[in-house]
Design goal:
The protein has 435 residues and is an alpha+beta fold. It has three domains: 195 residues, 2-Layer Sandwich (60s Ribosomal Protein L30, Chain: A); 41 residues, no CATH class; 173 residues, Beta Barrel (Porin), CATH 2.40.160.20. It is 22% helix and 44% strand. An eight-stranded antiparallel barrel has the order 10-11-12-13-14-15-16-17. A five-stranded mixed sheet has the order 3-2-6-1-8. It has a two-stranded antiparallel sheet with strand order 4-5. The longest helix has 22 residues.
């Protein structure tokens, strides 16, 4: 009896891996400072290099889903989520241009479903109250002025004297400030490629099978929580997933250079000085972590000799500041700030009567406090007041018979307010590469 056997080729196996990249609050910069980012990006790079170089593997799609914690306004959160998507997409395409055309992105600016699932899986003392608020309080409502207000957010912020909000900010929100990169690819089980070894993917690589790309991933957060608890008991690496084939030669790993537009310096105009008829112009150079140094030059040259009127001054100021940012803006140079400043000024003020003239520089300095309000991507307002000392020599004179008669010379040491700012500024953005 003659028998014939027919071997049927197996269908390529579809696999999915999800990589989580986390962000600081209010930021879309990718940084190694966030736990797990270094390993996640290393493993993402390795997988994409492997797919590009391994004939047995084929890329299906790469999806980026970015989310934010909901403290800001809808517009601010939407911009922040879109910025995280754009930044991460740019990085992927910079080092893996071959995946262009396979990359899609979704920005989730208020992911209440994920918040809900995270609270359910948590051990927060106010867990039941939070669930009740999310289920029964609408997210937005029109007030009497037909303005949209975030009712649910305000209810959570005021609940239990603000303690509930503090717990949510500490335990829940950091897990929402992230981008999930979902890589879907196929592996042909019948194809054999020489020079392949098996390794285990380690640390912050969440592997899901048959999960919707654009859906929520509460299990990922639970897996991360379990990993953190496990790491406290044991310093060894936490292994997830099954062995994955990798070429023998080490896959190249892209360095973490991420381009993003950050404030570099600002041109400033003090409207309070302008109201006093003192033209001025300032610049401020802005560095990392909210630090800035700057200077302002003032020069008024008004005079009317026939009427014995003089309104003249020139001088300047240098200052250093620390900005603390605000949760409602992704601009670190916003919100409250404190600083120190030094001043030099000369002047000649006379309005038809007794005149005050300081032909030699008067010197001063002090500390200031203020608040900066962004008015968009480039424009903003800064309100600040400074208290310190101003000291120097000045002369008193009087116009008599077409001459200016000197009366006396005095020394002044003034303690008190020495600076007022209502400043309009335009900030210049530079493309910054963060490693």
């Amino acid at each position: 009896m003659l028998s014939v056997g027919v071997a049927l080729a197996a269908e390529p196996e579809e696999r999915t891996q999800v990589f989580a990249v986390y962000y600081e609050q209010g930021s879309y910069e990718i940084t190694y400072k966030m736990p797990g980012n270094r390993a996640a990006l290393h493993d993402l790079d390795s997988l994409l290099y492997r797919i590009a170089s391994d004939a047995t593997m084929s890329l299906v799609r790469v999806n980026i889903t970015s989310s934010v914690s909901p403290e800001g306004t809808v517009d601010q959160n939407n911009r922040l989520a879109a910025g995280r998507n754009s930044n991460l997409r740019d990085r992927i395409l910079r080092y893996h241009p071959e995946v262009d055309g396979f990359v899609g992105s979704i920005a989730v600016y208020n992911d209440w479903e994920n918040i809900y699932q995270s609270v359910l899986a948590s051990h927060l003392p106010e867990k039941d109250d939070i669930i009740d608020i999310i289920e029964n309080i609408p997210e937005y409502r029109l007030n009497g002025s037909y303005q949209i207000t975030s009712v649910r957010l305000k209810t959570l912020m005021s609940h239990n004297g603000g303690r509930t909000w503090e717990h949510i900010q500490k335990e829940i929100f950091p897990k929402l400030r992230r981008s999930l990169v979902t890589v879907v690819y196929t592996v042909d089980p019948d194809a054999v490629q020489p020079g392949v070894k098996t390794i285990i993917q380690r640390d912050t690589v969440y592997i899901f099978r048959d999960r919707p790309v654009a859906g929520n991933y509460p299990d990922a957060m639970q897996a991360q929580s379990s990993r953190e608890e496990s790491a406290q008991r044991d310093n060894s690496a936490w292994n997830v997933g099954e062995p994955v084939p990798v070429p023998v030669q080490d896959a190249p790993v892209a360095p973490l250079y991420v381009s993003s537009y950050r404030p570099s310096f600002a041109i400033r105009l003090n409207a309070a000085y302008l109201a006093a008829l003192v033209p001025n112009l300032g610049v401020e150079f802005r560095f990392g972590n909210g630090w800035a140094v700057g200077g302002t030059y003032v020069h008024a040259w008004w005079k009317n000799v026939e009427q014995n009127r003089f309104w003249q001054t020139y001088g300047g100021e240098v200052n250093a500041r620390k900005y603390f940012g605000t949760r409602r803006s992704d601009n670190p140079f916003s919100g409250h700030h404190v600083g120190a400043y030094g001043q030099m000024i000369t002047y000649d003020f006379e309005l038809g009567g007794l005149g005050y003239q300081a032909p030699k520089p008067n010197w001063g300095g002090g500390i200031d406090y203020g608040y900066t309000l962004p008015l968009g991507k480039h424009w903003g307002l800064d309100f600040s007041v400074g208290v310190g000392v101003l000291a120097g020599e000045y002369k008193l004179y009087e116009p008599i018979g077409g001459h200016y008669v000197w009366k006396e010379t005095r020394n002044r040491i003034w303690f008190g307010p020495t600076k007022v700012e209502i400043t309009i500024f335009y900030q210049i953005l530079s493309r910054k590469r963060v490693r």
